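Exercise 3.2. Students should predict the tertiary structure of the chain below and write it as structure tokens, then compare their answer with the key that follows.

Predict this chain's 3D structure.
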Amino acid sequence: MSTCGDNSKIFQDIQNFIQDYDLNKDYSVTSSEIYQSFLKKMNGDSLKASQAAGVLCSTVDMDNDGKFSYYEISKYCADQAKKQIEQNAETAALADVEALLLRLDKDKDKKLNKTEFVKFFKEQGYNPYSDPDYVLKIIDLDKDGYVSASELQEWFKQKRLAYARGPIC
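Answer key:
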């Protein structure tokens, strides 16, 4: 998922896509131009070019007018980025947890006690006037007073998924 600072890169990528595939330079990309571009890139293999163009057009051309608008391309890119984040959320959350436990789990029991959790809480930049006990209760799903690796993993995963569903800017 992109942040506001990344939007200029996304904008540039979309502009480059339009420039690359807009063969007649009319500032729109048609399904025919996509096919012609793919045909060239696929060394004249019309079947592969047709299939690839068909998939792309059916996926990106939301209003089925045979053209790719800037909105359609950017929506497609944003949707793909969200899907990628969702697919990687579990793995990334596990990596986050492993790194966190290596750093904060002083007694190496693969869970954070209250002291360890408060340190994590402060490192995350939470408001110092917030109640770490309250946050601990939210993350501590089994209510045993500790935050286990699996509870941390679920929390990190949910944060990543929420980020993926949020607005680009």
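Discussion points: The first helix runs from residue 7 to 21. Confidence is low (pLDDT under 50) at residues 1-5.
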